[in-house]
Amino acid sequence: QKHPAVFMAVCENRPKGIVQMLQQKPALEAIFLDDALQHLALQPHFKIVLTTFQKPWFDDALLPVGNLREPAAAARDADIVVVTKCPKTIDAESSKAFRIRLGLLPHQALFFTTLAYETHVRGASTLPLKEFVKSPFVLITGIANPKPLVDFLKGQGADFRHLSYPDHHDFGEKEIASLKAMQQPILTTEKDAVRLASSALEQCHTIGVGVRFLDKEQAFLDLVQSAIDGGREALRGASTPASSCGTSASAAAAGRASMPCSSASLTYRCCATDECVTCALLLHAAATAITACVS
């Protein structure tokens, strides 16, 4: 809703989904995928791994004991590591200590980010947050970790009752009826607002959240841009016949098709289940080779 120009699709088989998207939208120049690193049929050459400040991978364990979906050693494949949900400031000594504990290699760039909540809430009308929090309200969350939002609102002096639901919660009819019966304004996240969109909750407002780099944001953008530019140059100098695909016909038939080596991929990923954001950027020129790999 915030980005109507973005073409969105859902497909369990990511390579086939990419092909279908390019067939429907031939003008697409980039495709972003959620959870791309866990799909071995995709082979991104530029990877960004996210880990939270509160629960970094060196203090975590593999499922089911902890939240890691892969061993922490897998992060050694990353080009960039971003520590998310940090305090508003981190001194140089703490930053250096964090890098050591993460066990990063010399070539891996490290960045720190924090959450940045919007200053307005959106509902039937848009209100300044400082005005909205002057009256009691009900906070509804169906996300894995609502604590940062709860702490932020408390810091604003807000008086609210928190109704916390499991991550990805689908609200039932009785729950919707109960929410409608409330005589107080409702505040929820943008993620939850999508699931509540068809419920006609007139008193419902949403608050957005973004990411702010503590420093070196331009360095991060430069690295990303360099990866994209490098992929484009590779595509200009490489042909993309079916033979350029890294898999044989038998491998493709076995469901393990690979991206052609000339494609450019940019991947964001987090090791923890409560913040898994992955993205792969695929240059459209590689579509022919990908189609040949997917049967």
Could you state the oligomeric state of the chains shown? single chain
| Helix and strand run | HEEHEEHEHEHEHEHHEH
Helix content: 25-40%
> What's the count of strands?
9
β-sheet strand percentage: 15-25%
Structural class call reads: alpha/beta
Radius of gyration: 22 Å
What gap, in angstroms, lies between the N and C termini? 33 Å
- Report the major sheet: 9 strands, mixed
Backbone shape = globular
**Whole-number mean pLDDT:** 79
Number of helices: 9
Query: Low-confidence parts, pLDDT < 50 over ≥5 residues?
Result: 239-295
Structure notes:
By secondary structure, the protein is α/β, with parallel strands linked by helices. The protein contains 9 helices and 9 strands. Strands 1, 2, 3, 4, 5, 6, 7, 8 and 9 form a 9-stranded mixed β-sheet that branches. The protein starts with 13 loop residues before the first helix and ends with a helix.
